[in-house]
Amino acid sequence: MENITFADFQKMDLRVAEIKTAELVEGADKLYKLTVDLGSEVRTLIAGIKLFYPLDELPGKKVIILANLEPKTIRGVESHGMVLCAHTEDRSQLVCSALDKDIPAGSKVS
């Protein structure tokens, strides 16, 4: 594992986001299109969590996202961030970041 400096870590804007909607991405086996609330704005993200989370369980769930990741178009949808998840080495298990207490959407993670 490569180390990064504290200054590099400080560049990452990690935020609590509440998933408002989740949709299938046409032709994608692993992707969902998520609309997330960051408190001050609503964004669209693409997340590769379809094999691990049923679509109907996602709205209302709070996750941690990397909010200042450069936008990228995936399957024709521009994604503005990344949901942070943990996975096993063989990727047979995946768990999105969870919060043990309620905190407002948009809260900064440090």
UniProtKB/TrEMBL annotation:
It is found in: Cytoplasm. InterPro entries: Met-tRNA-synth_bsu_C, NA-bd_OB-fold, tRNA-bd_dom, Tyrosine-tRNA_ligase_regulator. It catalyses: tRNA(Met) + L-methionine + ATP = L-methionyl-tRNA(Met) + AMP + diphosphate. The lineage of its organism: Bacteria, Bacillati, Saganbacteria. One of its GO terms (molecular function) is ATP binding. Is required not only for elongation of protein synthesis but also for the initiation of all mRNA translation through initiator tRNA(fMet) aminoacylation. Its main location: cytoplasm. It comes from Candidatus Saganbacteria bacterium CG08_land_8_20_14_0_20_45_16. Residues 8-110 form the TRNA-binding domain. One of its GO terms (cellular component) is cytoplasm. Keywords: Aminoacyl-tRNA synthetase, ATP-binding, Cytoplasm, Ligase, Nucleotide-binding, Protein biosynthesis, RNA-binding, tRNA-binding. Its EC number is 6.1.1.10. Homodimer. This is Methionine--tRNA ligase. It is an enzyme of class 6 (ligase). The keyword Disulfide bond does not apply. GO terms for biological process: methionyl-tRNA aminoacylation. PROSITE patterns: TRBD.
